[in-house]
Amino acid sequence: MYAMMIYQNAFKYFKMGYASAMAWMLFAFVLGLTLLLFKTSGRWIYYEGEKS
């Protein structure tokens, strides 16, 4: 849904700056979520050969 809004703002309404800002916000959100998952994955993933 959000990606469709970015597309419409860029190519239907020709608001390239606004669409670019929306894309950067989406990138920041996904990057933050990814970093959070990488930081916490040690708590919820079990590697059998690893000693605690």
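The record above closes out task 2.4. Task 2.5 opens with a second protein, given below.
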Amino acid sequence: MELRQLEYFIAVVEEANFTRAAERVHISQSGVSAQIRQLERDLGATLIDRSGRTATLTPAGAAALEHARAALASAEAMRRAVDDVRELIRGRLVVGMIIGCTITPLFDALAAFHHAHPGVEIALVEGNSDRLIERVQLGQADIALIGAIGTPAGLDALTIISERLVAAVPPDHPLAGRQRVALADISSYPLVCLPEGTGIRTVFDKACRANGTRPDIALEASAPDAIADLAIRGLGVAILSESMTAKHDGRLKALTIDDIETPATLALIWKPVHSPALRELLVHTRKAFTRPS
């Protein structure tokens, strides 16, 4: 008894016809017939009634059908299990990251995964959030860290940071004596922002449109630290998140923007159906981001 004989038997039963079954399994009709006859000889019983216009099960065939399907399902499960192990021995993961963002727990997760599965190659690619979302949706990246508003269509997500936007100014700026500002207040000054397609810029642009404000975007930079440095040098009001500004405490003052309530978020995104390697990386990632501080 061979697995292919069980496959041909099931095909004939489901197609109720030897010709259609042969087309389905991509061999000749005589080949299908010969293999099923051999299966019947091995079992000592006729499985298919060939006397009518359609192929039908005999009582013995009906008794065998469930077990044939179970045997093929078990063989396929074994193949998947071996493939899973093989992919964790020799596989590849493409991890996307927004430009200029350093998230230590993600690096911890990558390091832990690499230690556990050293045979899996890890490739890092950078880009803005829009491009990274597209990469994941097209299968060009397995997982990506993006700045996002909501979960992109067709993907799963894990939010790791959610915080408000702030306007950051140096101590000698006219707004530095205030704790809070409105979009109208900062729009009278040149602004320094992340490029379009990034999460923070998307939140900011959406708030400006809703408010009817037309900001003066004087300078753009891909790295938050570059934006902060430009603001420190008096070249514009920086639009950043709270944590991005906190690292420059003393040189920049963060002002709450009252009319931007939508938070800027950082999230990991991936396709719902994923490889064993990505499944293992997600285990390490969740551990890294839920570890007590």
